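DM from R.C. (forwarded with permission)

"hey, sorry to bug you on a friday — could you get me a structure for this? deadline for the figure draft is monday and I only need the backbone to look sensible"
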Amino acid sequence: MNEKKVIGYVGAINLGQMREEDIRKLDVINIAFGHIRDNETVWEEGAGKEKDLERIRRIHPEIKIILSIGGWSADGFSQAAMTEDTREKAAKSAAALVAAYKLDGIDIDWEYPCFALAGIAADMRDKENFTLFLAKLRQELDALGSGRMLTIAAGGDTYFTLHTDMAQAQEYLDYVQLMTYDLQGGFVKVTGHHASLYPGTTNLFDVCVDKAVKAFLEAGVPAEKLIVGVPFYARLWKEVKGGGDGLGREAGTVGMGGPGYRELARDYIDKNGYKRYWDDAGKAPYLFNGDCFISYDDGESLRIKADYVREKGLGGIMFWEYGCDPEGILLNDIYEAFRA
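My reply, with the result:
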């Protein structure tokens, strides 16, 4: 396999439809998602998935399969992390799932410590409890035997490093996956890159992969533990004002969730009135048809990100998510870039 990890989030519903060639190109599958209910870790979609997991392991015996807990709008973390008793209940039940399904570990996608968003409870004590929760999880996973993995998905800007103690937390983690996508979009009516490597010259905000990497390095996470996250889907703004190429313009909507790469390639990229542009400063592509602006990643931007990962000594690339690109076009771009 490649020196740099290639990690993909795969919805439980898609596990059985994964192509053999895609499975072989992955180092790690993060199954999306398990949850925390009443301080207990559960995988409600797990029943009947054993055959899918067995097939994946037959195809690629060295692959690591991890259950990711959480996701956007997934409540339960702040409550489960609050006390020694609740941490123990959540951690023991997580380890029990790993044992029952013969998994390789747990990924925590807590969005986000100290922030009450999307129906997720929060408390300012989350900053300390986040580390205590990871410590308890590490203890319970180690009790299963050596080699069990513990990872997190982390918000891709300084709000995450300011509300956690990453220098301590990383000691319990195999790696930290930066969600360096959705960096612009859901809360602003200004077009921009949602996953660019650098800010770009006409991007209104400076959020980008490079800024996130620097923030987590400064917060105490070793470079080799940092995984750059990339999107296999787009974000789009409608009713864009001002003409031109559409970048950095006021829009009538916030940046909504856009099509996955399969649909982008079929219906949007240089098709149906959309023109592809390239921001060489930000190292990011985008589309514009005079009204609708679309930010996304493609083979060109992903190859540049792979080079960045190598140059900075980072751990690899993670993507969200497999169902957006079921033909494996972008996965192959990442895989081949790391092999070059």
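R.C.: lifesaver. The chain has one domain: 5-231+297-339.
me: no worries. The first helix runs from residue 20 to 24.
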